[in-house]
Amino acid sequence: MKTLQSLTAPFRRFLRDEKGATAIEYAMIAAGVGVAVAATVMALGTKLNGMLDSVKSAWPA
Q: How do the domains of the chain map onto residue ranges?
């Protein structure tokens, strides 16, 4: 019986370990922040490009 317990102990430790779950949660948060930043940059980039085009067309050549 002692041998069976010594063989199953590492498996039980693995099941109780929550470090991987925390890393996955942080990765999901980082991905969400990245998507929000990318969407903001794309939206502002389009508006900024339009504004620079209007300044360029108003500049005397």
A: 2-58
